[in-house]
Each structure stands twice: as C-alpha cells, then as structure tokens.
Amino acid sequence: MIQSEDPKLHPFDDVENEADKDSSRGNPIEVSVVIPCLNEAQTVGVCVQKALRALKQLGISGEVVVVDNGSTDGSSSIAESEGARVVHQPVRGYGSAYLAGIGAARGKHIIMGDADDTYDFSNLEPFLTPLKNGYDFVIGSRFQGEIHPGAMSWSHRYVGNPILSGILNLFFHAGISDAHCGMRSFTREAFERMKLQTLGMEFASEMVIRAIKEGLKILEIPIDYYPRQGESKLNSFRDAWRHLRFMLLYSPTHLFLVPGTLLFLLGLLCTFLLLPGPVKIGGHAYDIHVMTVTSILTLLGYQILHIGIYAKTYALRCGFESKDRLISGLYQIFNLEKGLILGLILFLFGFAMDARIAYVWIRNGFGPLDQIRPAILASIFMVLGVQTIFSAFFLSMLSIKTQKSPHHSLNQ
Question: Which domains are delineated in the chain?
Fold first, then answer.
C-alpha cells in the first residue's frame, strides 16, 4: 500500500472546512466521501452539495474529500467553495487519486464515487448501513439497478463490462454482477487490509480482488446510473486491456498453471500414443511429423508450468499474496536437493534411451537407423531433466529468507 507519508501521493491541504471544525471540536469524523476529480467543473460542485446534504440529513459527522488530479478548469476551487476539503495529487491516475484521497480521509467509513454526477451522492444510506451491520465492503451494481438512457454505451453495457466481470468472477470467484461500478464503500480497517497499490484504472479491479483474497465480507447493492456531464476521460479499449492484463497477472494459476498443465499432459499423452507407430483417426494417419509437434507442446507446457510456479512464489515473496496452498505444499515436499535428484533421473532416463539407440546402431555397423520416435522421446526427457535442475536452483533462490523479505514463510 502506498503510505500517506509520501508527500507526492498523499498531500494534505491546510484548508479548514466544516469537517475540520467538527474534528477540532472533538467530534470524530464518521464518514468520508472521497471524490477524484480531473476537469469536472460542471459537476463536482453538485456532487459535493449532494454528499454534504445527505450526510447532514442522516445526522452523520462527515466530510467530503475531493482529490484534484491536475485540473485546469477551476474544479478544485469550485469543490472547496461548496464545502469540500481538497487534496492535490499531481500524479495522474485513477488509483493514484484514490490512494491520495483515502489516505487523507479521516472517516471510519469511506464512500468513493466519481465527480461526473453519474452516481447519486444524495443516497448514501445504502452504502453505510451494511458497514454498520458488519459488512466490510459494499459495491454498487448498475445492472441490478437502473441504467438511465444515455448513461452507458451499448458496447460497455452488453460487451465490455459483462466480459470483464465474468472473467473476474471466473478467476477469483467474486460473484459480483458489476465489478467495475465506481461507487463503493468500505471501512478504514478493510482498506488497510487490502493493501492497494496500483495507480491506474486497474485500481477498481485490484480493490475487488484484494477484498476477496482478504476474506472481507462483501455486499452488492443495486444503484441508479445517470448520464455523465462533460467529457469522458475513459479510453474503452486501453482501459479494458489494463483491467484484463491486471487480472491475468494477478492470477498466475489461470495465466500459467492451467494452460501449462494442459499443454504438458496433452503433449506427453499424444507423444506416447505415437511412440509405437502411426495412429489412424477418421481415415487419416498421424505419424512422425505430428509426434514432433506433440513433443514441442510437451516441452512448452512444462516451461509455462514452471513459470507459473515462479510467478506464484514471487507473489508470495513480494506480499501480493498472503498464502498459497499449492506453493506451500510444493515447498514442503520439494527442496533443492530433491529437485536436483528428480531432474537428474529424468535426464539420465532420456540419456539411457539415446545410449541404447547409439549402441544398437554401432553394433549393426553404423547401418540404416530408424529410431526417430524413441530418439524424440529421449530428447524430451533429457530437456525436462535439465529444466527441472535449473528450476530447482531458481526456486531455491526465490525462497531464500532475507531480512527484508516478508515475514510469512513459503512453507506455511
């Protein structure tokens, strides 16, 4: 998590508003509404008014924190004049703005939403009551609520958002219908547990993923979504790719382990099936050329599988993951010495096959040699052995405990 002590990411203004006065009088801030803003002069004032009015109607001691992310249209002055506390964040980015604003917020409960008036800040109660009843994280669902005409394009409504939400649900079992809804609430404790780090649009995905991985109690509620005022800052394809890329990188299991395992097993199975001779399927014969391809698939799958193990180990070492049963189990069973022994066995098995082929060839006086199939299989085992040996060394390097490494152990 980016700490609030960083002056570039979490600066505090000295402006005293009503929230500051409440705090100085000894009344703790209960709710902070955090709104990032980049050239939203048309709507940021309205959003601040709605939020402050809603807090007053609910009888809650609260504040509105507007994060100015480099506006040039006077947005920050408008927000300040309407009663918001303005935090300036020169580092551009959706996540960067929120990390600064949430870091500067004083409330026990945080509500976040955009400054373009697409979300209804006058209706904050549904985002606060669940937090008081034991939920850690509340996210709105535009699809379960009402999307007003002109609020969302056809491609976003029926293609982009459903696909990205579906992938997130598939990878992380979120069970959320609208994973990219921008209006959310959470407790201060939940925010600290999530340890959010990304600075761009992928911050929205990271928040949901981290909430799931930390075992937070999550609630999705229906909300209304209105047409935005002013120019949109979104780039559909670029932002969608950033979300997808982040989800893939955050899930080594789906990016590496699953495809790697499937390629390895499929390639190895087909190689053994073709070892005795050609295989006929549907009137077509599959021979040595196909076996060459399956051998390559075997090696490729094994390499991807190992990269997945490296990635999951690295994620644990850097604190992106707090625990992983697969990696913990692997390090309990295998160590450098066992990896070296396994690699050596695989290599010697393949080498013995090649040695037998060479022996038969020499005994026959270097005559015609028709041992391509066993030679391919021997090469596979030799390469697998060498890769296992070097992987064992690399994984041992990743597992070395240092003073600066995370406190959790890979063996737990």
Answer: 18-249 (3.90.550.10), 252-398 (no CATH)
